[in-house]
Amino acid sequence: MDLLEYQGKQLLARHGVPVPSGKPATTVDEAVAVAEEIGYPCVVKAQVQIGGRGKLGGIKVAASRAEVEEHAGNILGMDIKGLTVHEVWIEEASDIASEYYASIVFDRSAKSSLVMLSTKGGMDIEAVADEDPDAIAHLHVDPLLGFQDFHGRRLAFDAGVDADVIRPIGDMLAKLYETYLEEEALLIEVNPLIITNDREIKALDAKVTLDGNALYRHPENAELTDPSAEDPQEKMAKERGLTYVKLDGNIGILGNGAGLVMSTLDVVAQAGGAPANFLDAGGGSKAEAITSAVEVILSDSKVTAVLFNIFGGITRCDEVAKGLIEAFATINPTVPFVVRLDGTNDVAGRELLAEADLPNVHTVATMLEAAEKVVELAG
Amino acid sequence: MSVLVGTDTKLVVSGITGREGTFHTLNNQAYGTNVVAGVTPGKGGQNVEGIPVFDTLHKAVEETGANTAMIFVPPRFAADSILEAEDAGIELIIAITEGIPAHDELRVYNHIKANGRSRLIGPNCPGILSPGKANVGIIPASFFREGQVGVVSRSGTLTYQIGNELAQRGFGNSSIVGIGGDPVPGSNFIDIIELFENDPQTELIVMSGEIGGDAEEQAAEYIRDHVTKPVIGYIAGFTAPPGKQMGHAGAIVSGSKGTAAAKAEALEACGVQVGRTPTAVADIAAEILGA
């Protein structure tokens, strides 16, 4: 789960990481009220989860009330790489002596946590990594040991930070690690981490990804939402407990098990089709879950045909068939369905479908045939 | 022969008294797996269809000599249950549970590795089936028979699909190992491919990967340097958009890293034939094994 900049900053602030003071706003009036409270100059920042906001006009400095009105008015509702800005973050402007970079990454490959520090902050770190890899100091922290003072010292010296901030930078990294561990984050990236003219250190930006599987231990984090990233179908699926990802095409897909569904999308694409979604009905799905999933798929008006690809293990094919029959009884779909049922109770499932004789439902024997058929029907 | 589970398996099930736990334990037993014990704290002394239930894994091991544990408890208790099994001296721990927090997995992985006495398979995996010998987990065993193809996969249902395509061409399996779809699996492709390489029954290895991480890339180099048996690869997720988690916690393309195309290329560069569909995997298997 990716957080917006201000949500990430508020999380960091709770763990003692200094951030510029600010508040979010969803209207121009709110933005002005916040700016009046904070004082001028202040910065108006679009809250969308996309890199390069600044270059696209999503970050503006305002020296007066009139400028806040102007910038907030322009930025709210702005489209940034396909995302609509619903919120801005107004914060005090910071004077900047140096821009550093700091991050902690859950390194699944090394089975460890990777901490990075660089004095080349404020720019695309992947570009720095390509052009000047030595400019990024990095080390792995043993999860059984945790972040030690020497880790911070070593990173600060290796990165070549200004001598007077060696210790404060180490303390800052320790606080970032504490946030990472206690909030169960998979990524914390501060770019830039600034040194002010008064030699204070502050997180000027924050990119935080939290572990969705750990949210039950962090109910306050579970409530953080990003209105700009919320697609109506994805929201509907989430409320129904379905694993759904919206895609660009017109062929609705339902399968059981993440790997099989991913594979189904690929096979449909190879057959010349464009999948409209990823939907994993999950193991052991009952008829109601299938009906509910069909509703989500068909709520996307682009969908012109639907493919069911089921290989039943714990999922029983007769339950899937019942769910589809129920969906036809309640929502009466008008698009064609292609259904492939294999695995547990497949014969019973196919018999149920044959008896029901649903309009425009085509039963096929294999995954490949199913993909070809649905592409043909989708048009 | 087969790998990891077989006729020597003495299984203890953590979470045996739960609805799913009971159902799959009895399924495994009906298949012929030697299920010696179950564990549910507070229910020691009871039994599930004659299988004795103990309060702790230590007691279960002491009383029954269990050497393999299946973890079937909910995510918030699963990491603890895995650590308990390791502490009780279980050699092979198979964690079916999906949804364990990543930081828990990281601690568990590093602890088990540091002690070096247990092997963890999963979490978030369908288990292991050695056809004709033992089934530990939720793999629908009736679709598979004994044979010469070893399968290792990050996905459950995709494994059934590939296994079924192989079965339709007359090929059976030595063992089918689900390593799971989480970011920090206890065992990886390399660990299982090494076992298949040394297993006399296995003549061909199929590895089924997916987007996210670099386990497939690491396996590719290992295969090039250490494996003499033919290996066929499959990768799911060519159509997955970056930054979106495709069902499995570990199935996510981060920036330009972890794409299906990069993984397929890495495997092919190391001499592994990659099937673009599950059917193509079976076609390649038929060519290699000559059927």
From TrEMBL, chain A:
Entry's Gene Ontology cellular component terms: cytosol; succinate-CoA ligase complex
Pfam families xrefs: ATP-grasp_2, Ligase_CoA
SUPFAM superfamilies named among the record's database cross-references: Glutathione synthetase ATP-binding domain-like (SSF56059), Succinyl-CoA synthetase domains (SSF52210)
Biological process according to GO: succinyl-CoA metabolic process; tricarboxylic acid cycle
Keyword annotations: ATP-binding, Ligase, Magnesium, Metal-binding, Nucleotide-binding, Tricarboxylic acid cycle
GO molecular function, one term: succinate-CoA ligase (ADP-forming) activity
Listed cofactors: Mg(2+)
Occurrences of domain ATP-grasp (ranges): 9-238
Protein known as: Unannotated protein
Organism: freshwater metagenome
Lineage: unclassified sequences, metagenomes, ecological metagenomes
Automatic annotation (TrEMBL), chain B:
Listed InterPro entries: Cit_synth/succinyl-CoA_lig_AS, Citrt_syn/SCS-alpha_CS, CoA-bd, CoA_lig_alpha, NAD(P)-bd_dom_sf, SUCC_ACL_C, Succinyl-CoA_synth-like
GO annotation, biological process: tricarboxylic acid cycle
Segments forming domain CoA-binding: 4-100
Keywords: Ligase, Nucleotide-binding, Tricarboxylic acid cycle
A molecular-function term among this protein's GO annotations: succinate-CoA ligase (ADP-forming) activity
Keyword Ligase in annotation: yes
GO terms under cellular component: cytosol; succinate-CoA ligase complex (ADP-forming)
Record flagged with keyword Nucleotidyltransferase: no
Entry protein name: Unannotated protein
Record organism: freshwater metagenome
